[in-house]
Amino acid sequence: MTSAAEQRAPAGEPAAGTGQQAVVNGARRAAVPAPVVWPGAPTPLGARFRVGPDGVAGTNFALWAAGAEAVRVCLFDERGRETQVRLTELTHEIWHGFVPGVMPGQRYGYRVDGRWDPWTGARWNPAKLLLDPYARAVDGAAGNDYSRLPPEVYGHVRDWPEQQVADTVRDDRDSAPYVPKGVVVHDDDDWSDDRRPKTPWADSVIYELHVRGFTKLHPGIPRQLRGTYAGLAHPAAIEHLVELGVTAVELLPVHQFAHEDHLLRRGLRNYWGYNSIGYFAPHAAYAASGTTGQQVGEFKRMVRALHAAGIEVILDVVYNHTAEAGELGPTLSLKGIDNRGYYRLQDDARRYADYTGCGNTLHVVQPQVLRLITDSLRYWVTEMGVDGFRFDLAAALARSMHDVDMLSPFLAVIAQDPVLRRVKLIAEPWDIGSGGYQVGAFPPLWTEWNDRYRGAVRDFWRHALPDVREMGYRLSGSSDLYAWGGRRPYASVNFVTAHDGFTLRDLMSYERKHNEDNGEDNRDGTDDNRSWNCGVEGETADERVRALRRRQLRNLLTTLLLSTGVPMLVAGDELGRTQRGNNNAYCQDNEISWLDWSLLEDPAWRPLFDLASRLIALRHRHPVLRRRAFFSGRAHSADGLRDLAWFTARGTEMTEDDWYAPAATLGMYLSGRDIPGRDERGAPVADDSFLAILHAGEGPAVFALPGRPWADRYEVVVDTSREDQTEPPGTVHPAGAEITVPGRCVLLLRVAPV
Q1: Rounded to two decimals, what is the model's pTM?
Q2: 713-719/701-704 β-pairing
Q3: Residue 333 and residue 338: Cα distance in Å, rounded?
Q4: d(CA 277, CA 290)
Q5: pLDDT digit string, tens, across residues 665-705
Q6: Residue 23 neighbours by CB under 8 Å, 6+ apart
Q7: Which residues are designated catalytic?
């Protein structure tokens, strides 16, 4: 079927998608006087380049837009001139058509006609160019070149004098010059030359990093590659990850995202990226090679390089909301395609249900929204090579009509999907809505960010726990949260810091947030930091305070890497990175957030990296430190030796009363003789046994080392009171000896053979 094209190109000039014959992959590009559209197919969704059986190349466009009255594909040439092609085929609420001659690299968008009736949730506005939800590459980004979002990008008249009804007045100005465009991409990469690391969960050490922030100041990366996917793929970047010993990088959002108007007005940008607008497209600003499709190949090369180094790639994904915000937000994509179909609306359909704190919530119960999310996830696994996902505000995705439901459509679909159920799935198990806190509640297959671990460890080392019960659970895998339904200790992703909040160094340098640079009068960011400044707020020249802070950082890192579960480090914490007390640096695309690589050569901070890498190597060598099953606490041999035992400083096993009493010192014995499971050849797993002594008191403590059957003697392998961490201390103590544990210190002792 052929329709008349609606031309906007100047008379006498060739419009986008027309012109002379060309050849791509041996196919003819049709030479036509104006774009035509053939019926095409309703699947797959998005813009898919293909070559027909007659050898004619072109692109099939398919867009789900239930309730729309008309859909036009808008093609843009290199000068920004627009040619419109009406899609006339409608199958199961999907508008579709094949446009011959539209080749890879073509920029495009949609205009969707329909009713404008915000009172019922209908917000169609054909004056607004809309980004294809399935666009695999995006050129340009809303707000990139502006000090505020232009008024044209809003579906309503933003400056309407009666603000209480401003969102109900339609704005008919054209948004095309100001909004991002999709790019037609053709890539037939089959990944046959790639080998995924497939690291078991129990063996994983996760490293949360920002593509731009990690590479921006790295002196070993060529300047033109800094801040990009190519920069992260550079040998200098990968060398650091390998030397540290992490098994996976968890990338802060790399889906295409947009900048918020309130940040642009303050001269800031969204740095973290939790403001997605394109769920199939790598964020174009992180590409060194170009933004008209080249970013796809660059991202894939990054993944390949990391895989070759044995490092998995996990994406932090934001499927709970989009950059279109609430009723006063811009119209960039879904809002103008089918507002009621994509978003959760309130009973007053002008308003959006907001379980995310970002103005809107995707309506995941709707089949098409669920399809969008799962299609996106599968795409990143099968065609972009990633190994897993961390789901931002995952509780919002698990909501049925209102309440969080662990039998929700989203979780059910993931559980049965043959692709997605095999990759790493990490939930941030909360949102801001009623009943949104769901730590420990996600079903098998899922791991969770365990913020109860974060709180307990922070409180222990600032000596703020009333007793050590909570600390005992968190050190040993959080069985109180996860020992149900076949879940394992690695269901707990243990962390002390994350991208939001203080860095590890700031945790011991500030007791109050210092977010003035964010331009919100220090109102943003949490006040619940559970931090301790060691007696001085902020940076100081007092060497005694600085030495104490470094020791506390060693304590926190050692605790994290010796705990049962999956440890997660934040990029730069192993270097002593500071954000100057900013605990919400989401808008700081500058030295506040970027890694300062000079710290790696600083004699004050290099030992922290040495300790972290040595602890990770120790963890990799010893299966007792990365158990695949929960401890039983029961004796498995005639001598009464148990897989896990807890000791007081007196060298006696802890009683019920001891667990409820205030204590600054805790001993944890891990037996290598009682590790459940077998190795790959079916042989029992055996390992050394260890005694970890954690002492949070200010002064030294005397600790009596347990005697038989626990050990005959002990060798000290970690002592956090030491500044030099390049080698283990190696000191040997007989069992039963009373040793002095320095104030605020972790000792790890290996049960030494006789």
Answers
A1: 0.94
A2: unpaired
A3: 9
A4: 19
A5: 999 999 998 788 777 787 888 899 999 999 999 999 999 99
A6: 29
A7: 392, 428
